[in-house]
Description:
It is a single chain. It is built from ten helices and seven strands. The chain has helices at residues 6-10, 16-31, 39-46, 52-63, 80-89, 100-112, 151-161, 200-210, 221-238, 253-265, and strands spanning 70-74, 92-97, 119-123, 136-142, 162-175, 213-219, 269-277. A seven-stranded mixed beta sheet has the order 3-2-1-4-5-7-6, sandwiched between helices. The longest helix has 18 residues, at 221-238. It is globular, with a radius of gyration of 18 Å. The site of S-adenosylmethionine has 25 residues, from helix 1, helix 5 and strand 2. Residues 6, 10, 47-49, 75-77, 80-81, 96-99, 102, 125-127, 142-144, 147-148, 187-188 line the site of S-adenosylmethionine (SAM).
Amino acid sequence: xxxxxxxxxxxRPGSGTAIAARVIAALRAFAGAHVAITPETLAPIxxxxxxxxxxxxxxxxxxxxxxxxAILDIGSGLGGPARWIAAVFGCAVxxxxxxxxxxxxxxxxxxxxGLADRVRIMQGSxxxxxxxDASFDRAYSHNAxxxxxxxxxxxxxxxxxxxxxxxxxxxxxxxxxxxxxxxFPVGWASLPANSFLATDEETRRDLAAAGFAIVTFQSLAGPxxxxxxxxxxxxxxxxxxxxxxxxIRPGDGLQVQINGMRAREDxxxxxxxIVARKPDGSQS
Length: 284
Ligand SMILES: C[S@@+](CC[C@H](N)C(=O)[O-])C[C@H]1O[C@@H](n2cnc3c(N)ncnc32)[C@H](O)[C@@H]1O
């Protein structure tokens, strides 16, 4: 890690192709040299959020993507969720991510999965999406806004690029009731300076200010606190599984996982899942 840029937490400069190669090598070491490279086989590694693939499935149940629709992934990481949605639901998915090395790796993995024509990756900021107004049917963002102080700005941009009636689904970590995160690194930041957790109330306010109507707002503090304790104890006893996001960032992977579970367990963070809608007839 060099300095305090958000991108430096996620990748070393110039590491894009090496990241994709490391992901594929880890999968082959685990599943055999002839394993098919698909969104499903990559899923234990390339869904970069707590509870991995399972949480993506939960998000997708809220997003309800339809065949042929244009879907936007804000903060798309290595593109795991984008590839899975494109492959399973037959959508065209555009991912925008700040970290150039992750964009490079995502494009390599798209090609390896044969999905380069259905998943487009663009390097850019959620605060200035490099995309035209009213160009997406649905948008989602999974565990990216925790790096961004100006969340109202993210929601304004999502509103701008959605078509009237379009749906936004958010799944991320909000501030819990018991104070700030105590131990770093966590999955989204190496340092407190890059961690910006909103309260549920601030999130509702920022979405409304951007023009969204909130359809559902679920805060998962209770259930995740219980399961996080069990997950932390398992990690401490058994260490990391062979496949996981730690493959991308070797070194402190075990500590990242343990710190994240501890923060959930102590009520310093909570997971939220939100469905919001751009009203019909609203101007972008
Ligand atoms: C924890 S990863 C999650 C990646 C992906 N959403 C997933 O669930 O697999 C967070 C991602 O958000 C991206 N990110 C952080 N700040 C951003 C910003 N201002 N604009 C776009 N992407 C951003 C990071 O580069 C990183 O890839």
